[in-house]
Amino acid sequence: MPPTAWMGQVLKETYRLDELVGEGGTGHVYRGFHLRLRIQVAVKILRHNAGEMAFARFRKEAEVTARLRHPGIVQVIDYDVTPEGRAYLVTEWLEGETLAAYLRRRGALPPAEAVALLSQVCDAVGAAHAAGVIHRDLKPANLFLLAGEGPPQVKVLDFGIAKLIESDPVRTEEGQTLGTPRYMSPEQIRIDGGGDVGPASDQWSLGVIAYEMVAGRPAFPGSAHAAMLAVLDNRPAPLPKTVPQGYRLAVARAMRTDPVERWPDVAALRRALEESVVEELPQEPLPRWLLLGGVGLSVVLLALVVWAHARSTTPTAVLSDLALPPSLPSQGEAVLRTLQPAVTPLDLGSPEPALQSVRVRVQPQGAQVFIGGRPLQGGVVQLPAGVPVRIRVLPPPRSCCQPRELSYTPPLGRPPPPLMIELRCDKNCPFY
Q1: What are the catalytic residues?
Q2: Between 266-276 and 199-215, two packed helices, what is the crossing angle to 10 degrees?
Q3: pLDDT per residue over 372-389, tens digit each?
Q4: Quick check: is 226 in a domain?
Q5: By CB count within 10 A, which of 105, 111, 192, 373 is most buried?
């Protein structure tokens, strides 16, 4: 029976098949209509010659997906077999497009938009892992973006080759791997058929997807065979320098060859990605208290007095190392150089202190800087003048550098020069 011959038929006196909307290697997808609930549904019908292995995977997709109740996972409504022996799966109907189609239209996405989508996927995949299910075929074609107002909602599709952590009823033939090569983890590609595949394998796939979303290209392009060799070699081209450093580090860790070296779970990966695109404090050309309505001339004059006081004083900047004594560090230790003066903050009667733009430079490259618990983005941050803030600097992965914690107080009255931080490192150890 040709695929179009199914249109207009009613399965189990319930599901009317209205339109053929998709076709894959093992089956066809139809837009259907639930005659009693009066809602649209998606009906996936297995090919008559798909084989026993495909039949088993099809049944497993129904069983596995039905047990996963999460807004980010497509919901199964029914599963059955026609009198002719054709298995079919009924799911909720989704309006929109796959992430693969979206990326073909858009190209490289801004990191903040990519993280907004990836956070939803990580939540859904984390819920699957908590239920004892590993997807094993995460890729842009299996992530669906719902159409609608506001930011897109993402649904994870196709658990047809998912693995149950406690058992795996669908066995692979000897030497056979399951999944899409360019998104498969190294352990999944190896000839053992993925026997050691765990939740970290899905994390690898998410890292590869995260790479592609901001790069506008796959991490491992080429044919299936070339992609498999490239994954095992694991040397993708560097991400563009316009991508935030924290994003690049999060992806690099998710794509480590050794699963033990990846993030503890996909929730940790999600947090790292979200922290990488946290927006800085808004840029303000003038202190906010100067813009408040009803401020009298006396407040303006008082601000000028403070500015003149800062210009005439030359005390040492308020800057201290939280990890080491306040004395100057010896050669090889972290060095901080600042030339700006600092004065005791005055109570101006304003609701918020004035903000200072501070440029922060750190060595070695790749180190992460957290100011007040938030990651530094772009090298410039606005901080309240006269208010101490904690600075934490983490070395690049696999480097031989020591982390540091410092306290820094932006000065009042005059723009500060760049704050320069150099970590203490073993120069004989190459940076990762």
Answers
A1: 137
A2: 20
A3: 778 887 788 888 887 888
A4: yes
A5: 111
